[in-house]
Every structure is written in C-alpha cells, then in structure tokens.
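Issue 218. Parser rejects a valid record. Input:
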Amino acid sequence: MQDKKSNKVNPGNQEKEEGEKRKAIRRIEIKTRKLSNQVFSGSYHSAFKGRGMSFSEVREYQYGDDIRAIDWNVTARLKTPFVKVFEEERELTVMLLIDVSSSSFFGTQTEFKNKILAEIGGVLSFSAITNNDKVGVIFFSDTVEKFIPPKKGKSHIMRIISEIYDFHPKHVGTNIAEALKYFNNVMKKKSIAFVMSDFMCASSYKDALNIASKRHDLVGIKVFDKHETELPDIGLARMVDAESKKEIWVNTSSKEVRTNYAKWFAEHSKATKELFGKCGAELVSINTSENYVIALMNMFKKRESKR
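Output the parser choked on:
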C-alpha cells in the first residue's frame, strides 16, 4: 500500500501487514504443532518409518517370521527356508512439492486452497522432525519457483511454514511434470514425497510421475473447493481462468451447463486418481470445507494396514 502524497510505501501499513503475517504464521505453527504432537506423530511413524528399510542379511526361517520376508532364491539354493533381514533407516527425508500457481489462491468456503496447503505442510513437517527426519520443499508453478534443501530443526520448519504461507510466485501456470523432473534430479536418495496441488494441469505429467513413484515413496494430496466440483445457479456470470486469464460468460442457470461441468470435474478427478494408482502412488483428496485431519489419518491408517 502506498501513501498518495509521497508515493512511497507507508511504514505504518507495512508494519501492520508484517504483524498480521507473523500472527497468522504463529497460529499455523500452534495448530499444526498441536495436531502433530497429539494426533499425527504416531501415525506418521507407523505409516512411513517401516518404508525406510535397508537390507542387512539373510538368516534361517524361525517360527513366527513373516512368510513375505522369505528369500526364495536362497531358500531354493540351500533347500531350507531363509528370510531377509532389514534394518530400519534411522533418518528419512520428507519432500513437499507444493503448487503455488494462481489456481491455488482460490476458495469459497472457510479457507483458500493455499492456506489449507500451508497447514497440511506444517503438520507433515512437524510430524517429520518429531521423528528426526529431514524436510525440504519445492515450490512450483509452471516452473520451479524455489527449492529449500532438506534439513532438520524447528527453525528450519518455521522457515518452511512461513514460506508456504506467504510465498509470492513469479509465474501463474501449473506444470507438475517440470516439478517432478526437478525433484528426480535433485533427490538421488529415496525419500517420502508429498505432491500438494489441485492437479488442474493442462499438460501431461504421467511419465514424470511414473519415474518419481518408482524412485520414491510418493503421495499426492489434492485440495479442491466445493464450487470447483459444481457450479452454483447464479445466472449469467463472468468467469476468469486464474492462470490463463481467459474470460468467458457462463449461463449458470442452465441445468445442462451445470451438469456438464460437474461431469467434467468428476471425470478429471477419476482420471487423476487412476493415474496415481497406475504409477504405484497414492492420492488423497481433500475438500476445503472438510476436516483435512480425517483425510490424512485415513491415509496413514491405510498405509499402516498394508505394511
């Protein structure tokens, strides 16, 4: 905001905006830390720690061993059952790939999508450092906007939460393939990767997703708004694409228009879920009007049951 007389930034307004920003980030810290400590930490450990395993040795099968651990090649060669022994890796790396394109700055319910993403990112980050894991972030639009290398510590997590909450991208579009390719290049060691987006991407990211999910433990977190699933009946309305800036007039009073739009969104959502499934990755869908805690807990429990 500028002072009309001097045409300079008003220090008072600037200080007020900074103060409001600090308060908002503090609220996110308190909320996400509490959720992580009271709800998520144990579930996070159960859902992901078992995935960070490295092969140690083989030994003879003992009563009670999981038959899925049997090494069939050694068993066939030595004519007696042997099982693979794994050691849990002491340190894992969590990467957050966060969509900061213009479509994330939208919401008609309690919060904008980008604010929900900030909270979810905070919860996952605090859960990770509670288990002594490193956390890093890749912010992307139609290009990679910023990369924060994985580190440990509260100050690092607070930097991440601050960046997520108040990040100002230079570009407006979405290119998930570009983000995944960059991720594959900078992260050589296997990590747990959360791709957080509304997945409203015009270009294909199938190949990049397939490669990333084979190298890493990958989970997609889709955040969407209620009015992205269906159009409200508000008559003739001017609509603007947040990324392309294309404007069109839509007759929302038309039942056919509303039905076709709802059908398109449902088909797009189904295709996204199927794509993740075919690539061996998971996808969690979260509505901005719903409690994301429930969705994340269900995801953790589902992963734990598959171990």
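Fixed in the parser; the record now loads. Residues 11-48+90-306 form a domain with the Rossmann fold fold (CATH 3.40.50.410).
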